[in-house]
Amino acid sequence: MRLAPRPMRRDQSGDMMGEVLLDSEFPGTTDGVRSALAAVESALTADGAASGAAPAAELVLAEVLNNVVEHALAEAEQGSRFGLRLSAGPETIAVDVRDRGAPMPGGMAPAGKRPDVNVDLADLPEGGFGWYLIREIAQDLHYARENGENHLAFWLPLAEPAGA
Amino acid sequence: MEMTSSERGGDLVVRVDEGRIDAAIAVKFKDEMRALIRGPHPRTVLDMSSVDFLDSSGLGAVVAVLKEAGSDKGLVLAGLTTNVEKVFRLTRMDTVFTIFPDVEHAFGATADAS
């Protein structure tokens, strides 16, 4: 399956986005997620300026891609894939994730409220952290459903903010 | 799922010999830990110093093990690496777990190693 060609994008200042660090498709499985994360790590660490963003990128993309595989592509045909593109600007990494699976429920990316951990031991949440982590780390996150395709786009800062 | 368990001072020490606790192995990790903590040891120290990466599935599995251990059989964590510690901190789970810098600190670590 080929994903639709993506239109040229511009960053917030109107400049064309920077150098493409990774533009690839991966199998829509947990092993495919591992392969994608390994590719993200090597693409970012190979780029001196981007290497500081690697841990945050790996965490946020693990959550995004696990959701793609476990939800969007859960009922998809065998051999489904997702697309992942990273490009480097002067101070940010732009991330685009595409798949042709089921749309987000309600047509919106979840708000990602932090689960309450100030509860009795037996009531501690074992899930619900994924979208909270995505929203904490990803900046300017946009979700769109276009021509049967899910498109999630966001930014990561090249340098982690102090105290993060 | 590679883990090494040993006894120390009546407690169980479990070292995770995997670089990642992620969606691919979270269920295996949870099942194997649940079996281990059913033993007679009053406390389990989970040594995570080899784990460089933990996602929300892995975090959920560690929480499930804490709940299985219950309040009378305690599970404590040791040796969280930078990336793993960040996940605990962002989710406030660092306020729920007892976390030691390493296994030695979980056993007092006041004695001079020399």
Description:
The complex is a heterodimer of chains A (164) and B (114). With 164 residues, chain A is α+β, with helices and mostly antiparallel strands. Chain A has three helices and five strands, in the order E-H-H-E-E-H-E-E. In chain A, strands 1-2-3-5-4 form a five-stranded antiparallel β-sheet, covered by helices on one side. In chain A, a hairpin with a 3-residue loop joins strand 2 (81-88) and strand 3. In chain A, helix 1 (30-45) runs antiparallel to helix 2. The radius of gyration of chain A is 16 Å and the shape is globular. Chain A starts with 18 loop residues before the first strand and ends in a 7-residue tail after the last strand. The model of chain A is unreliable at 4-8 (pLDDT under 50). Chain B has 114 residues and is of the alpha/beta class. In chain B, helix 3 (82-90) links the parallel strand 6 (75-78) and strand 7. A five-stranded mixed β-sheet of chain B has the order 1-2-4-6-7. Chain B has helices spanning 26-37, 56-69, 82-90, 103-106, and strands spanning 3-8, 11-16, 20-21, 44-47, 53-54, 75-78, 99-100. Chain B contains four helices and seven strands; from the N terminus they run βββαββαβαβα. The chains are: A alpha+beta (164), B alpha/beta (114). At the A-B interface, helix 1, helix 2 and helix 3 of A face helix 2 and helix 3 of B.
> Can you give the helix content of chain A as a percent range?
25-40%
The overall average pLDDT of chain B, rounded, is 93
| E-strand count of chain A | 5
Oligomer: heterodimer
Concise structural overview:
The complex is a heterodimer of chains A (164) and B (114). Chain A has 164 residues and is of the alpha+beta class.
